[in-house]
Every structure is written in structure tokens, then in C-alpha cells.
Design goal:
It is a single chain. By secondary structure, this protein is of the alpha/beta class. It folds into 2 domains: about 200 residues, MOFRL domain (glycerate kinase, domain 1, 3-Layer(aba) Sandwich); about 170 residues, 3-Layer(aba) Sandwich (Rossmann fold), CATH 3.40.50.10180. The protein has 16 helices and 14 strands.
């Protein structure tokens, strides 16, 4: 049954990923406005850049393009696209290839004329893929600042607040460079709540945060004195009004800017729910915005599941047909969540937030005495969790004992942020390969009763 539950969890996860298909999203949302007579500058960046650019290039006649389009994606997702220059760049750590790609994008959009259209296709990962720091701050200094924020558990809003004020493209910077041309952005969201100003750090969206806010983030996280001197100087000068702020909502650069959300974590979560129901599970959305520290959120979910499980409504599924179950049996339940947790790095191990979530859940399930058969999958929809080849982890009631039998102390490995190696020892890594999309993470917890009838 454990194997069956894992198969079900993987199927449900894959349904969620499929719902974020970037090619289909662009095909649904993009139509040509024949009233625009100028050229079209096609720009795509993010983990889904190639698929989105491919869909757009099929809809736009090559004669309308202002030269080759530009698509920047992580190396694993690079593939050839007609009429598009595809550039591979670093993710999650920015690199020089991304910097040069960002400079190319900045140059291209700056050339757009008033009657031109800058079509921007945005997906998760864009923040890292097109790093373009302001003058006076090097790429390495910006990376060092971001690393400090990640290591101290800053959330995506806090990180983006700082990044926007160190960048020439983020926080509405791309729209500012493109003005007075028309800008139309199709956005595949990897951000909880689908805040467009946060996705890829809001390159075409106004920014309501300030230099003062960015300084406060660094100070509140205790890293202000540790960031490079150039970063502190730039933010201080910005707060004093010596450097222009990021464009605000009433800025004229947004006069001809439009945005369309073409996919999100919420859409994928609903697709996962439908897939679970089709497999015969009673479903419950545990959270549509699961955030916070991964191990803490995992423990809360385990505790919730342990207190909930005895109250699941009886019935079972045979094939695709619901059937009455014995009074002693309980219908299987799928608890589903979507979001993006964070990790406080205290050790020197290997892993990512989803792997840490899975390992922490296995430990918490034992602590809170979660009985019966269960499987927990926590995975990134992009197929990559942190700097590893895994999308996340998939654990069950046998995982901890398997680790122990392999000479692994699960608690020690969790405390060393080494979930990857712990999960590897129990064959519980979720390996999917890159998916070509990115709409944050999905968590799938499948619960069965103590006794499993022979169906």
C-alpha cells in the first residue's frame, strides 16, 4: 500500500505541474492587437521562458518582430526556439551569463519606439536569471547580499524589496526603460497570492517599497553591517533622495503597460485536488499560501493530520467507482497545500526547502503519533529544490526506520540542513527532472486508516 500511496502522490503532483504548462498558458492568453503598427520586441525570462517564447513565436509573424526575440532561462531548460535567441543563465545563483543577458534585454527594450510593443513573458526564477545591478554595485556584491538574506530566512517579499533597490530592471525598471513604448506582460506566477510586483521582482510593475524599507529589512534581519559597503552606500543615498526611487503607481512609465496572469500555484493546487478526487480521495485544502519555516510548517501539518485522521468520513474507492465501505473502514484523505516555505541555514548539509519539509514531517509524524498508512510529498513544480537534482522529497511511515537501518540519524541530518542525504538513504528523494515551468511548491499528504481493506 505504501508503494501505491507514493504512486498516487506522484500522480497528483504531476497533475498540478501539468496545469502550469507555460506553452498552453500563453496560447490561451495572447492575441495580436492589429491596432499596433510598430514592431514587437519579444522578451522572455524565467524557468518557463522557452515554452512561453515558443508559444508566442508561433502566434506572431516573424515580419512583426524587431529582430530575434530574447529568452533567458536556467541551463537545464535551454532549448532552441524559432526566431528567438535563447540564453542559458545561472539559477538559483546568478552568474555572468545572466548579467550579460540582462544587459542585452535592457539595450533592446531601450530601443523600442512609441508605437512599438514590448511583449514580456515572465515566469518564476526571473529574479536570479537576469541580474542587472545598479552602477557602483558589482554582481558579486549583489549576490552576497541576497545570500545573506536567504541564509537568515528572509521571505520573498523582503528579499525582493532589497533586490529591487539594487537593480536596473527589477521593481518596474524594465517598464521604465521601455517607455514610451507599449508594454504587455504575460505572467506565470510562482508567488503566494499572485502579487505581480513580487514575481521575478516585478520588472514591469510599480514598486511601493522604498530605499528606507530595503534598509529596514537588512537591519531587522541582522545583516546590515555584513552586506558590502557599496550596498549600504547606495541604499543610504537613495533614502536621502540622491538616487531616483523605483517607479511608483502613478508614474507615467506605466501609461501603456498591461499585465495578464496566465498561471499560478492556485490553479495547480486546484488541479491537484481534482486529480486526488478522481483517485477516490476525500480532499481538503490545508493551505493555499503555505509559508514560514519549512520544518515548523511540517510539524504543524503532522500535528493537524494526527488529530484529524480519526474523523475522516467512511467510504472507499474501487477503480473509478465509489463503493460503500465497512463501518470500520475510513475513506482515504488527501490534505493538499501550495506555497513556498523557507529554511534557516544553520548547518552545512545539502538540500532545499521541500526536502527539509519532507524530512521534518517524517520526524514530526512519529512525534505526534500519526498512525496508519500515510505518504507526504513536498515538491517544487520546477523540478528542482535548492541547489540539488531533486524536486523535493516523498516520505512515508517507514522512512525513518529505513534511514536508521542505513546508519543515518534523521534528527542530526535535519539539524545540519542535510535532508538530501537523509532522504537519499531511504530512497525518498523526489526526482522529476526540470519541468519547464515554476509556480512554487505543492504539498500532498495522503492518509489511510489503520486497517486497509483488500480492494
Amino acid at each position: 500500500m505504501t508503494t501505491l500511496l507514493k504512486q498516487h502522490a506522484l500522480h497528483i503532483f504531476q497533475a498540478g505541474v501539468a496545469a502550469a504548462n507555460p506553452y498552453q498558458a500563453v496560447q490561451r492568453c495572447l492575441t495580436l492587437d492589429e491596432s499596433l503598427t510598430g514592431k514587437i520586441h519579444l522578451i522572455a525570462f524565467g524557468k518557463a521562458a522557452c515554452a512561453m517564447a515558443n508559444a508566442a513565436s508561433e502566434l506572431i509573424p516573424a515580419s512583426r518582430l524587431a529582430g530575434l526575440g530574447i529568452a533567458v532561462t536556467n541551463y537545464e531548460n535551454v532549448r532552441a526556439v524559432d526566431n528567438i535567441e535563447v540564453i542559458g543563465a545561472g539559477h538559483p545563483l546568478p552568474d555572468l551569463a545572466g548579467f550579460h543577458a540582462a544587459a542585452k534585454i535592457a539595450e533592446r527594450v531601450s530601443q523600442a519606439q512609441a508605437n512599438d510593443l514590448v511583449l514580456v513573458l515572465i515566469s518564476g526564477g526571473g529574479s536570479a536569471l537576469i541580474p542587472y545591478p545598479v552602477a557602483g554595485i558589482s554582481l558579486q556584491e549583489k549576490i552576497a547580499t541576497t545570500d545573506l538574506l536567504l541564509a537568515c530566512g528572509a521571505d520573498i517579499q523582503e528579499i525582493n524589496c532589497v533586490r529591487k533597490h539594487l537593480s536596473q530592471l527589477k521593481g518596474g525598471g524594465l517598464a521604465r526603460l521601455a517607455a514610451p513604448a507599449h508594454v504587455y506582460a504575460l505572467i506565470l506566477s510562482d508567488v503566494l497570492g499572485d502579487d505581480l510586483s513580487t514575481i521575478a521582482s516585478g520588472t514591469t510593475i510599480h514598486d511601493s517599497s522604498t530605499y528606507g524599507d530595503a534598509m529596514a529589512v537588512l537591519q531587522n534581519k541582522g545583516v546590515w553591517t555584513r552586506v558590502p559597503d557599496s550596498v549600504r552606500l547606495h541604499l543610504e543615498r537613495g533614502k536621502q533622495g540622491l538616487i531616483a526611487e523605483t517607479p511608483k503607481p502613478d508614474d507615467s512609465v506605466f501609461k501603456h503597460t498591461r499585465h495578464v496572469l496566465c498561471g499560478s500555484n492556485t490553479v495547480s493546487l486546484k488541479a491537484a485536488q481534482l486529480a486526488a478526487e478522481q483517485l477516490g480521495y476525500q480532499t481538503l485544502i490545508y493551505s493555499e499560501q503555505l509559508c514560514g519555516i519549512a520544518r515548523e510548517e511540517a510539524e504543524q501539518l503532522a500535528h493537524y493530520a494526527a488529530t484529524l485522521k480519526d474523523n475522516i468520513v467512511p467510504t472507499l474507492q474501487r477503480g473509478n467507482v465509489a463503493v460503500d465501505a465497512p463501518a470500520s473502514s475510513i475513506k482515504p484523505l488527501a490534505l493538499l497545500a501550495g506555497g513556498e516555505t523557507t529554511v534557516n541555514l544553520k548547518g552545512n548539509g545539502k538540500g532545499g526547502r521541500n526536502q527539509e519539509f519532507a524530512l521534518a514531517f517524517a520526524l514530526a509524524a512519529e512525534k505526534h503519533r500519526l498512525t496508519g498508512q500515510w505518504t507526504l510529498l513536498s515538491g517544487g513544480t520546477d523540478g528542482r529544490d535548492g541547489p540539488t537534482d531533486a524536486a523535493g522529497g516523498m516520505v512515508d511511515a517507514d522512512s525513518l526506520q529505513t534511514m536508521i537501518n542505513a546508519g543515518i540519524n534523521p534528527t542530526k541530518y535535519l539539524n545540519n540542513n542535510d535532508a538530501y542525504n537523509a532522504l537519499h538513504s531511504s530512497n525518498d528523494l523526489l526526482i522529476t527532472g526540470t519541468t519547464g515551468t515554476n509556480v512554487a511548491d505543492l504539498q500532498i499528504l495522503l492518509l489511510y486508516p489503520e486497517e486497509i481493506p483488500n480492494v
